[in-house]
Structure formats: C-alpha cells, structure tokens
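Example (one chain per record):
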Amino acid sequence: MKTATIPSVRVEPEFRDEVERVLGEGETLSQFVEAAVRACVLQRKSQAEFVARGMKSLASARRSGEYVEASEMVQRLRSKLELAAKKQQGTARR
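Predicted structure:
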C-alpha cells in the first residue's frame, strides 16, 4: 500500500525547539508528529462515541420516562471503579 503525507505545519522556531527538547531517545520529529496526530484522532473518535452513547441514552430515557439520579449513577460508577481496583490489586499480588 502506498503511503500518504500529512501537510507540514509552520510554527515559531521557539516552539519547534521546545518540541525537539521533549523527543524521546532516538525519536524523530516526524515520529513525534505522527504519534501526536494518531493520539488526537483516537481521542476525538472516543469523544464522538461518548457523545453518541449519551444522546442515545437520553433519547431512551425520554421515551421510557425512566431517569437515574446523578448521585445514584456516580455511586454505581464509584462501585465499578472500586471493584476494578480490587481485581487489579489481586492480579498484581500473584
């Protein structure tokens, strides 16, 4: 498969210097830019999926008339996090 390029971006020399200072050992500027763009794309896709799930949930709640109090939902999420943390601690001990 043929590769494509991402357009070059003009930045102030000071910013380029700053970016170059944070490069990992053996990492090129091109690798850094590609990794940053990939991370941003994944973050935006995740954000769009999150919003879509929220909108779907809202539509479902409106149709059914069944809503969950925010405090109850926060408690459910907290319980899930606590359970996941316990599982992770159990795995780490082995």
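Caption: Helices lie at 13-21, 29-64, 70-93.
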